[in-house]
Design a protein that fits this description.
Belongs to the class-II aminoacyl-tRNA synthetase family. Archaea-specific ThrRS editing domain subfamily. By secondary structure, the chain is of the alpha+beta class. It is built from 17 helices and 30 strands. Helix 1 crosses helix 2 and helix 6 packs across helix 13.
Length: 631
């Protein structure tokens, strides 16, 4: 169970609409208010089904303890599914909450908001140190006796080393100066300061639902899949289109850099001698399964397949630098449950993974610089600028001392201070790594692009190339993900849009990623023919709102869907042949920007904005009246 405990001046709710799993309630249950209350937002999870009574007892203990600390006798129990991606069955959830309610009524004034209803609520948090607390409650299993199989989590030696490694944290400024983190002035670099705190504390768990979760649902992009393992998502047609466009763009960018696209298996033998050694050098938790009495693991990157492929290849110095790329749909990492939320951190994700074989360290450093710039360019085209992320450079002290000018050039390239994590000795397979880290509305950082210089795996996988003298040599290997996980790009775009909206800007996706690029709204049935003509002339994703709704509501719906261009068609437009276009990017909240233009001018404008980017078909029926709802 996930618990969020808020000490509030008041909490009040009102039910709006039932869901298919709504419990039956009386009218008196449809509204509720408590003053000076401890509100327990709660999500009952699938793991709680092992022992729901134990979960309820532990939740009661936490609520009683906190209520005593904040000195209140009023408790509101509030079901809040958004706290978890791995929910229990509705029947178990209601049972647990009723058990909690029954256990508290003798000691407190208790109200419980109904389960399975969409509700409007208002809450006023008091803001003292104990007013916001989160708790994860795990049940004691009722059946851990003899004969029950329990999966043992596979933890690599690198992951263990990561938790004990001694890091020296510095801030590198573009002038080449290394500053101690404690002495650096972050006043002009607030986001960097937030990122530094996040990295040093190593706190990845979230205590609130980040804004992008509500947006990914409302925009019908993605949602949790309760029928799967935590951290595995479902993607609706709009989300699948966005993912597909991003995937194609990153693959195209890699191809332009000379990468050959390959495909490799998802599953590997855990006891393969080479792979077993690499598993212990990669800081990630693995999914393990048994197949034909062999212990297998699901890949967490494309390294295994590409390195085994490289081992079997004949490679000449003429081929170097040699690049291979694969879009791993999916990579699997068994991230800890408290860290899983929305699209930010997943157990199954899509990772563009490129590897470069280099003749020596000088060539590797040169390629690292090229791929650093490539990653900047990729994220910019995706809609994530240098100002949106912070740079982390992780390296050994020896590598830094030998390559100071090169490392400083990385800071100069982004023209701002960067975080440096330095080790006296090498714990991992790489000597140098960079990450671009997006800091979201909850002050959590997530890595996007990355490149690493690997000095171990050519030997481990027995990868060789033939040099000019005919001698067999080991290459230096670069690992590169130009964008990071595709899902994290979507997360970053949604979080960025949310933060911009808080600053008074109109939220939107880049036009090339918008599922609908133009929406045509006919005022009346007689304007439908011209609306269809406009749609047929535009070379983009255009739909028609033909529903029996008011024009005002149709315009508001287009705004809620972040449609970049909205065309309203009436008698005047039919007569003139021109169109009045609401341009979202140029609009202010409650003040739309309208431009009169020809259909050809609108078409040219959109083609110019999306030039060089992948194109995709409209993901849903062109007429809105024909579309199902996914939420």
């Amino acid at each position: 169970m996930q618990l969020l405990l808020i000490h509030s001046d008041y909490i009040e709710y009102e039910v709006k609409k039932s869901t298919p799993v709504a419990e039956q309630i009386e009218d008196s249950f449809k509204k509720g208010r408590l003053d000076e209350a401890l509100t327990a937002f709660m999500a009952v999870e699938s793991s709680d089904e092992a022992n729901p009574k134990d979960v309820a007892e532990k939740a009661v203990a936490e609520i009683k303890k906190t209520a005593s600390q904040v000195n209140t006798d009023n408790v509101m129990l509030y079901p809040y599914a958004h706290l978890s991606s791995d929910l229990s069955s509705p029947k178990i959830a209601v049972s647990v909450m009723k058990d909690i309610e029954n256990s508290l009524v003798d000691s407190f004034n208790v109200k419980r908001a109904p389960f399975g209803w969409y509700k409007a609520f208002k809450i006023s948090c008091k803001g003292h140190p104990l007013s916001e607390l989160s708790r994860t409650i795990n049940p004691e299993s009722e059946s851990c006796g003899e004969g029950v199989d329990t999966e043992e989590e596979v933890v690599s030696e690198a992951l263990k080393a990561e938790s004990t490694a001694k890091s020296y944290w510095k801030v590198l400024t573009p002038d080449g100066m290394l500053h101690d983190v404690d002495g650096f002035d972050f006043n002009d670099h607030e986001n960097l300061g937030t990122f530094v705190d996040h990295e040093i504390s190593k706190s990845r768990a979230v205590e609130k639902v980040p804004p992008h979760v509500e947006l990914m649902r409302r925009l019908e992009i993605a949602d949790y899949e309760p029928g799967s393992d935590s951290g595995n998502m479902r993607y609706y047609p709009k989300g699948r289109l966005i993912k597909s466009l991003l995937e194609r763009y990153v693959l195209d960018s890699s191809s332009r850099e000379g990468a050959m696209e390959v495909e490799t298996p998802l599953m590997y033998d855990m006891n393969h001698p080479t792979l077993k050694k690499y598993l212990d050098r990669f800081p990630a938790r693995q999914y393990s399964i048994e197949s034909d009495k062999r212990q297998m693991f699901l890949r967490f990157a494309a390294c295994f397949g590409q390195f085994l492929m490289s081992h079997d290849m004949t490679i000449s110095h003429h081929n170097l630098p040699m690049k291979m790329v694969e879009l791993t749909r999916y990579s699997f990492r068994k991230e800890q449950r408290g860290e899983l939320v929305g699209l930010r951190r997943l157990r199954a994700f899509t990772m563009p993974d490129m590897h470069t074989m280099c003749g020596d360290m000088d060539q590797a450093v040169e390629q690292f610089g090229r791929q650093y710039q490539m990653s900047i360019d990729v994220l910019k085209d995706v809609g994530i600028d240098v100002s949106d992320y912070e740079v982390a450079i992780r390296l050994t002290r020896d590598f830094y001392e030998e390559n100071k000018d090169f490392i400083t050039a990385l800071a100069k390239k982004v023209n701002k201070p960067v975080l440096v994590e330095m080790w006296e000795k090498r714990f991992f397979y790489f000597v140098l790594k960079f990450e671009f880290n997006f800091v979201d509305a909850l002050k959590k950082a997530s890595a996007l692009s990355t490149v690493q210089i690997d000095v171990e795996n050519a030997e481990r996988y027995d990868i060789k190339y033939i040099d000019q003298a005919g001698e067999a040599k080991r290459p230096v290997v670069l690992h590169c993900s130009p964008s990071g996980a595709i899902e994290r790009c979507i997360y970053s775009l949604l979080e960025k849009a949310s933060m911009k909206a808080e600053e008074g800007e109109v939220p939107m996706l880049p036009v090339w990623l918008s599922p609908t690029q133009v929406r045509v709204i006919p005022i009346a049935e007689r304007h439908m023919e011209f609306a269809e003509e406009i749609a047929s002339r535009l070379q983009c994703r255009v739909d028609i709102d033909d529903r029996e709704e008011t024009v005002g509501k149709k315009i508001r719906n287009a705004g809620q869907e972040w449609v970049p261009y909205v065309v309203v068609v009436g008698d005047r437009e039919v007569e003139s042949g021109n169109v009045n276009v609401t341009v979202r990017e140029e609009s202010m909240p409650k003040k739309p920007s309208k431009i009169e233009m020809t259909v050809d001018e609108l078409n040219s404008r959109i083609l110019a904005e999306t030039a060089g980017m992948p194109h995709g078909h409209l993901p849903l029926a062109q007429k809105l009246s024909m579309r199902p709802r996914f939420i």
